[in-house]
Specification:
The structure holds two protein chains of two kinds. Chain A is α+β, with helices and mostly antiparallel strands. Chain A has nine helices and 20 strands. In chain A, a hairpin with a 4-residue loop joins strand 16 and strand 17. In chain A, helix 2 runs parallel beside helix 4 and helix 3 packs across helix 4. Chain A is elongated, with a radius of gyration of 24 Å. Chain B is mostly helical. In chain B, helix 2 runs antiparallel to helix 9 and helix 9 runs antiparallel to helix 12. The N and C termini of chain B lie far apart (63 Å). The chains are: A alpha+beta, B mainly alpha. The site of adenosine-5'-triphosphate has 12 residues of chain A, from strand 2 and helix 1.
């Protein structure tokens, strides 16, 4: 089912939950809503589910406006962060509840619940109460309950954030596989950008109730349209510093105190002659070299496979990833090479990208 | 310098001292508790003995000359009187009426107050709190007029008017509703929204959510309220006494009051027997339900996850 949000807004008095959100989700697409806490992800999701009534704007399911449609008529399944299982019912009754409400005959219900439970790997737990299950098992029950009525739209509200790291990893791929197999249009809310990047076909980045960007993961990563998106997506986060870009002898130079690199003309041209702009570069696009911009190591943080190194260039700081076997120490002088084909430029006032508009 | 008392010996010594002190402390607590309940225990013993004797000057049925004796079942003869069973039934009807009436209305009202947004919600909440603070004595006259008015209504009058069981139950239910509503609202407030949302998305109507998903979560609260209302209905005196005449619609406490006459000498031993009779179901009931009753104060419902 195709879903379309048009100028979707939710306000409670002065509090803005979601602010004119426009996006459309193709049939079978897996979309992640990504953003920091309180940015309106849940609010938007609950409007799609029919729990909240939009203050303004429209929600369309397959061209049909569903603003006034009750949740039960929308045929959506939802998985909550808190699982929201019914504690007084057994696993069987929990999963079967949507079918019971639809007055599905006993036998068919039995079959469908069993099938979904087997698919989720909890077929042997049907007689238990939720309190007798582990967190991961509870999450599977919640997923089963959302799937059993064969919804046309699946909504996930941070379904994995209560699980431990390892379980989160396996559930992540499981959910993704399920969604691909079943081909159900899905919206997946998360504040974990790795989750969003790995699972989603497209990611909607939100901040303060507004949609900041809506793009496939690679595009979001390589062509961030705002400073916020650039800083929020990617780990460790992108480095930013204020520079001035000038054209000199046909080359574009990005300069600040103790820093001077030549940037490719297609990027430099858009940032030149604007006074101060913000240059962004990801840690993996800066490497140690024999010559280049010189700096001094300020902090070394071992991450395991790499060391995250904070290098001071004048009064700016740049984080880079380095091989731990180099045994870099605080105070060492190093030279940095910037992969300038990956630099980003942002307008400091509007915080919009100068490269991608 | 060698010493015979090693650190170990010292430790054992101190441990013993500590244990002794603990025993001593807890025995003091027990002694104080026992002493403080002695008067209550004596009171109950006296009550029970009195119901089986002609006279009780002290704890034993002793007359002025010091003759022990005078055991009798005379005081319990009222059990042969059909009137006592009639008033017991009335007490039961009032008590159950309150359980059902207050339980039903306050769990619905509290759900709405806790979960729904409507204008006047805040005002309504403070109003019920103020109403609860009113001593019911101050309302008696006004209630009398209301009941009188209801008496004149065609269908409702004979059931809920003045001098009817329904009327008494109605008044008592409404006086207890503020308490019930606030209590239940506390239980509803403690439940997470997610479960309710999940049920709505699963396809339940709001009423079904309330009935199938929410109510089962607050069973402990509901049970506590039910017990509370049963006890208060069972021992109700002021309202039944004020708004009924004669024994047709009297309940047990009112019947008890009627035994105490201003003109004829009162058989206090019989009063004690009726009092004990009224107390027995409450005691039995309380023994079985005290744990639930306590949960009313601890906030009750264990949430889901
Ligand atoms: N029922 C409500 N009444 C008033 N304000 C609300 C309500 N629900 C949410 N808000 C506000 O709307 C904003 C967005 O909330 P929302 O729950 O959508 O955030 P979120 O992106 O889901 O955050 P999180 O990652 O913490 O779950 C917040 O500022 C929140 O305080
Ligand atoms: Mg949320």
């Amino acid at each position: 089912m195709k879903v379309e949000l048009e100028n979707l807004t939710k306000r409670w008095g002065d509090v803005v939950g979601a602010d004119s959100i426009n996006l459309e989700i193709q049939d079978g697409e897996f979309v992640a809503f990504l953003g920091p806490s309180g940015c309106g992800k849940t609010t938007t999701l609950l409007m799609v589910a029919g729990i909240y009534k939009p203050t303004e704007g429209f929600i369309r399911f397959d061209e049909r406006i569903v603003n006034q449609m009750a949740p039960k008529d929308r045929n959506v399944g939802m998985v909550f962060q808190s699982y929201a299982l019914y504690p007084h019912m057994t696993v069987f009754q929990n999963i079967g509840y949507p079918l019971k409400l639809k007055k599905v005959p006993k036998e068919e219900m039995q079959k469908r619940v069993q099938r979904v439970a087997d698919m989720m790997g909890i077929g042997h737990l049907l007689d238990r109460k939720p309190a007798q299950l582990s967190g991961g098992q509870q999450q599977r029950v919640a997923l089963g309950r959302a799937l059993v009525k064969e919804p046309q739209l699946l909504l996930f509200d941070e379904p994995l954030s209560n699980l431990d790291a390892r379980l989160r990893l396996s559930m992540r791929s499981e959910i993704k596989r399920l969604q691909m197999e079943l081909g159900i249009t899905s919206i997946y809310v998360t504040h974990d950008q790795v989750e969003a990047m790995t699972m989603a076909d497209r990611i909607a980045v939100m901040k303060d109730g507004r949609l900041q960007a809506y793009a496939p993961p690679e595009e979001l990563y390589d062509q961030p349209r705002t400073l916020f998106v650039a800083g929020f997506v990617g780990n460790p986060p992108m480095n930013f510093m204020e520079v001035e870009v000038d054209r000199e002898n046909g080359d574009y130079h990005a300069r600040r105190e103790g820093f001077d690199v030549v940037v490719p003309p297609d990027r430099g041209e858009k940032a030149a002659g604007r006074g101060k702009v913000i240059l962004g570069i990801r840690p993996e696009d800066v490497t140690l070299a024999d010559e280049g911009v010189s700096g001094e190591i300020y902090v070394v943080e071992p991450l395991g496979r790499d060391d995250l190194i904070d290098v001071r260039i004048g009064d700016a700081h740049v984080h880079i990833l380095a091989d731990p076997t180099l045994r870099l120490k605080i105070g060492d002088n190093v030279k940095l090479k910037f992969n300038t084909h990956k630099v980003q430029f942002f307008d400091p006032a509007t915080e919009d990208s100068l490269l991608w508009t | 310098m060698a010493t015979t008392v090693g650190p170990k010996g010292y430790g054992v010594e101190a441990g013993r001292l500590y244990a002794a002190r603990r025993v001593f402390n807890s025995s003091i607590a027990y002694i104080l508790l026992v002493i403080s309940i002695i008067p209550i225990v004596i009171g109950y013993a006296w009550l029970i003995i009195a119901t089986f004797s002609y006279r009780t000057e002290g704890l034993l049925p002793i007359d002025a000359d010091g003759n022990v004796g005078g055991w009798t079942l005379r005081n319990w003869a009222f059990l042969n009187d059909p009137a006592i069973w009639h008033v017991t039934l009335n007490s039961l009807v009032i008590a159950l009426g309150m359980v059902i009436g207050v339980g039903f209305v306050s769990s619905l009202a509290a759900y709405a107050l806790s979960r729904m947004n409507f204008s006047g919600r805040k005002g309504f909440l403070s109003l019920t709190l103020i109403l609860h603070a009113f001593p019911s004595v101050t309302l008696l006259i006004a209630i009398f007029f209301v009941l009188n008015f209801i008496s004149k209504l065609p269908a409702l009058g004979p059931r809920f008017g003045y001098n009817t069981l329904g009327g008494v139950a109605l008044v008592m239910i409404s006086l207890d509703l503020p308490l019930g509503v606030w209590l239940m609202k506390g239980f509803f407030d403690n439940l997470s929204w997610d479960m309710e949302r999940a049920a709505l998305i699963d396809g339940a109507s709001r009423f079904r959510v309330w009935w199938e998903i929410i109510l089962p979560q607050i069973k402990p609260g509901l049970a506590a309220l039910a017990i509370f209302e049963f006890l208060s209905g069972w021992s109700a005196f002021l309202i039944p006494f004020t708004f009924t005449v004669g024994t047709r619609v009297a309940n047990l406490p009112v019947y008890l009051r009627q035994l105490i006459s201003d003109t004829a000498p009162t058989n206090w031993n019989q009063v004690a027997a009726v009092g004990l009779f009224q107390l027995i179901p409450v005691l039995v009931f309380f023994i079985f339900t005290q744990e639930m009753l306590l949960s009313i104060y601890s906030g009750g419902a264990k949430g889901g996850t």
